[in-house]
Design goal:
single chain; about 160 residues; mainly alpha; two-stranded antiparallel sheet; 5 helices; about 5% strand; elongated; transmembrane; GPCR_2_secretin-like
Length: about 160
Amino acid sequence: LPAVIVSLVVIIDRNIYGRTPLIPSRPNETTICYITDNTVKMVTTVGLFSMVFLFNVSMFGVTVKWFVGSHFGKQHRHRDWNAVRREIITLLVLIVLLGLPWGLIFFALGPLPAPGLYAFCILSCLQGFFIFIYFVLYLKKSKDSAAAPSTATQNASIKT
């Protein structure tokens, strides 16, 4: 998708890309090859961010609907709803964790572009590590819950 956006911008006007300062208030310092027209920069950057944001929110909605729908047809036990609530909170944490770099790059278009770009790069590089930590904790929780006998099994053994 970014390649399509860049191609469209170049097809429309090749002169939109050029050397532009990384920090607009200091034009004599570090420059990068980027979009020089501020309107085009805002439309393409905010447009891409908005598309990613809408896709993530829609996938979150589909996943929440799936979690609630899979437990809605069954008996409404309080424990099941607590499990669904925990899963939804976990999804919210993952969305914030994985969406944070995009939010930072969105706000980096304002008065503090350099710190925003550094934070975006660092957090983007650490996303794989964050996902790894999530799965390690999730597997540990699954392993702990599988090792503990269920209350139904305990009640059945007590009755016999």
